[in-house]
Specification:
The complex is a heterodimer of chains A (about 240) and B (about 110).
Chain A: E1 4-11, E2 17-24, H1 31-42, E3 61-64, E4 67-70, H2 76-79, E5 84-88, E6 95-97, E7 100-101, H3 104-112, H4 135-143, H5 151-155, H6 157-161, H7 168-178, H8 186-192, H9 207-211, H10 218-234
Chain B: H1 3-32, H2 37-44, H3 48-76, H4 81-108
Helix pairs in contact in B: 1-3, 3-4
The chains are: A alpha+beta (about 240), B mainly alpha (about 110).
Chain lengths: ~240, ~110
């Protein structure tokens, strides 16, 4: 193991540039450890975002050697070929400064895809009984552990090419709600994901599935949405 | 892409899969049997079956290809979505006209 890492870090806004720092190499070092070292020991003006440091909050995603990663759970030994790291902000999102991106477009698209639970009962109604083995519950289970990190959104070619496309995370969220027996918003949701920017824009490149740190498969969720919306369209439940 | 275009594109793709296989089989048959152009035309002339078959083929190709081209233009070119729509429609009409001309030549002319 080399004693030092050569680390290029994006500095500035959209028109910024990479600056290179030398960081001591350590055992079990994560990419977030490297960024934190630069900020605490070399340049305190470096801006980046993190919170939990244990892979729960989804705040610390960055582009590491060309691929979006959750940096707190990405070990340097896994990604730093030749002792070099290039760390940039997530792609497909506006850069605020250095490694911090503006996540607003990402979350606005969750709203557009009707990724908000629409309750169908009040507190006075009985609790919905959902068998864990039901197909709907299993489909929701397979997609539900998203931590909103934005890795899939940054990895997606369709997001890069089509600014209206909702992206994998928003559509994956919509799919979990489509399979939620308690939700009352599916008519609007299926309509929303069937319009321009919705699930039918997905090219199934599967970069989201390859890079999702939670090993979810948004491409499969989007395929589920395509099937469900097609059935609804043919029955006349949604408009074209 | 919305669900209406998606349905048309996937529907025409499903239609084209068997049509293309038969088309390729016919090409192999014609070349392996050593059929001349006159032999082919004698079989296709005044044939409602071949006219219908290739009319369906041309219609499916025109719809399928123009929707695909629209997506490529919308995602990869600087055209506005509306301009991409018009360009794709014109392309589809051009394919349909060329196809109709070919059908006319082998069935009616």
């Amino acid at each position: 193991m080399a004693a030092e890492l050569s680390v290029s870090v994006w500095r500035g806004g959209e028109d910024g540039r990479y600056e290179t720092y030398s960081v001591p190499r350590r055992e079990s070092q994560t990419v977030l450890d490297v960024v934190t070292f630069v900020q605490r020991n070399i340049d305190p003006t470096l801006s980046y975002r993190f919170a939990c440091r244990v892979g729960v909050c989804g705040s610390c995603a960055m582009t590491v050697n060309g691929k979006p990663r959750w940096t707190c759970r990405t070990h340097v030994s896994k990604v730093a070929g030749g002792g070099r790291l290039e760390i940039g902000p997530l792609e497909n999102l506006p850069v605020i400064k250095d490694l911090a991106t503006d996540m607003q477009p990402f979350f606005e698209k969750w709203q557009q895809a009707k990724g908000v639970f629409a309750p169908s009962k009040t507190r006075y109604d009985d609790i919905e009984q959902i068998p864990p083995s039901s197909p709907e519950r299993r489909a929701a289970d397979a997609a539900i552990e998203c931590i909103n990190c934005g890795v899939c959104y940054a990895a997606c070619d369709t997001v890069r090419w089509n600014k209206d496309y909702f992206g994998p995370a928003a559509l994956n969220r919509a799919w979990t709600l489509v399979n939620d027996a308690r939700d009352a918003g599916n008519a609007e949701r299926l309509q929303a994901v069937s319009e321009n920017g919705g699930c039918h824009s997905c090219h199934s490149h599967q970069s989201c599935q390859e890079l999702c740190p939670q090993t979810l498969n948004p491409t499969a969720s989007i395929a589920g949405l395509k099937r469900r919306t097609l059935a609804a369209y043919l029955k006349g439940e949604i408009k074209g | 892409m919305n669900i209406r275009l998606y349905l048309w594109q996937r529907g025409t793709a499903a239609l084209l899969a068997p049509l293309v296989l038969v088309h390729i089989a016919v090409i192999f048959y014609a070349t392996r049997q050593g059929l001349s152009a006159a032999d082919v035309l004698s079989r296709t002339h005044d044939s409602i079956v071949w006219a219908s078959y290739y009319a369906l083929f041309v219609a499916a190709v025109s719809i399928h290809a123009s929707i695909g081209l629209r997506n490529i233009l919308a995602e990869w070119s600087p055209l506005t979505p509306r301009a991409a729509d018009w360009f794709a429609i014109m392309f589809g009409v051009l394919l349909a006209m060329l196809g109709a001309r070919a059908i006319y030549a082998v069935v009616l002319a």
